[in-house]
Specification:
The chain has 260 residues and is of the alpha+beta class. Helices cover 40% and strands 23% of the residues. The chain has one domain: GMP Synthetase, Chain A, domain 3 (2-Layer Sandwich). Helix 7 crosses helix 8.
């Protein structure tokens, strides 16, 4: 059983904005420290950014407009906590406590990911989808239910009828759709809006890739300040995650669909 939401879901719009801002930080520094939270809905986008990088407010505004359309913006930028920054200044060390689980993706999860992407390609509007064994549930905005029924005759489609989605009628917040993004690998932390020093990003990606390669679940824990996780130097884990992020096109791209 798995749920996917597409990149126009309000929560994913929030994740994408957060990811785009992290991309801006990496354009300024090789190893920035940044954490971004976004709340969007009903004509306004609230953003709080803790960062070491010198970010351009106009570039942030442009990123929000590109992803969410022209919207009122409330952006707060503050420096990262000085003590935390000083403690990480000499080397790349684990930036948070946490437990992390990497799980091999199932055929069911991969199938729903494929269906969700196909639907989004035809209907690039707010939508969410569930696959539970043989039961496919499609909730897709801005399209006639009767049209979807022609292509997916056995699916449960828009049970309450046609609907209008998006941040004009709903709110979205960062890291609220982690089940959609990480499947069975969800633990306590969120992967969006954070730099690679944060274990929520680097160790989650490391564990996910490890599980896909080996086909075996992996669970690891770490403490803030650790220089080694799962017997691997934390700096190497960061580079594994960096390579993955670079390959898929950046943090905003990660936010579109998660890791699958």
């Amino acid at each position: 059983m798995i749920e996917k939401v597409n990149p126009q879901h309000p929560d994913k719009i929030a994740d994408r904005i957060a990811g785009a801002i992290v991309d801006l930080a990496y354009a300024e520094e090789n190893n920035p420290k940044i954490a971004v939270e976004v709340l969007i809905g009903h004509g306004i986008c609230h953003v709080i950014i803790e960062t070491s990088a010198a970010l351009n407010l106009n570039e942030i505004s442009q990123a929000i407009n590109r992803i969410a359309g022209k919207i009122k913006k409330d952006v707060v930028i503050v420096p990262q906590d000085k003590e935390l920054a000083d403690n990480q200044a000499s080397e790349i060390r684990c930036g948070d406590n946490g437990i992390f689980r990497g799980m091999p993706l199932t055929k069911e999860q991969l199938l729903l990911s494929k269906i969700a992407r196909e639907l989004y390609q035809e209907h690039p509007f707010d939508g969410k989808y569930i696959l539970d064994g043989e039961r496919l549930i499609i909730c897709q905005s801005h399209v006639k239910t009767s049209l979807l029924k022609m292509k997916y005759p056995n699916a449960t489609i828009n049970p309450l009828g046609d609907w209008t989605g998006g941040p004009d009628v709903d709110t979205g917040a960062t890291n609220r759709k982690l089940g959609s993004d990480m499947a069975d690998g969800v633990t306590g932390g969120g992967i969006h809006g954070k730099d690679l020093s944060k274990a929520d990003v680097a160790v989650d990606i490391y564990a996910f890739l490890n599980a896909q390669e080996t086909g075996v679940p992996i669970e690891v824990s770490c403490a803030i300040g650790d220089t080694e996780v799962d017997g691997v130097p934390y700096s190497e884990i960061v580079e594994v995650a960096r390579d993955y992020i670079t390959t898929i096109g950046g943090f905003e791209k990660l936010a579109e669909w998660g890791v699958f």
